[in-house]
Design brief:
Length: 133
């Protein structure tokens, strides 16, 4: 398997609308859209830049993964997503290398992408997302 590119960088923020000012007004990026991912208790905003994207993540609940991340680490980069052409193969390959997956089966993330997270213990404490779309 080979990661094809950085699909997006996920950034945990407390206030999406407040944060958008920096990305839109200062960096000049355009908001492509927002979406609520119910099972992750998160509201996501996508801002394409070059051939990748910034994904801003605001928790919709105090007990969601993004809320917990901010509680522990503060706002900041939460994950890096790599594009792969076959997510099922990528998961199996990683497992064959002894890496631990948070998602052993692909699930649907924002934008209808098939995604799976690698456990940070297996990736130098960086939360890595695999994304196929
Ligand atoms: Zn992501």
């Amino acid at each position: 398997m080979k990661a094809l590119k950085i699909d997006h960088i996920g950034i945990a923020v407390k206030d999406l609308n407040e944060t958008l000012k920096f990305y839109q007004d200062v960096l000049g990026l355009e908001l492509q859209g927002t979406e609520v991912v119910e099972d992750q208790k998160v509201k996501v905003a996508f801002l394409p830049v070059g051939d990748t994207e910034i994904e801003l993540l605001e928790s919709t609940s105090d007990d969601g993964p993004i809320a917990k991340f901010i509680e522990k680490n503060g706002e900041g980069i939460q994950h890096i997503a790599f594009k792969v052409d076959n997510i099922q193969e990528a998961i199996e390959y990683m497992q064959s290398k002894g890496l631990k997956m948070i998602d052993e089966k692909p699930r649907y993330g924002a934008g209808g992408a098939k995604i799976a997270f690698v456990h940070p213990k297996s990736s130098n404490r960086v939360l890595v997302e695999l994304s196929e779309r």
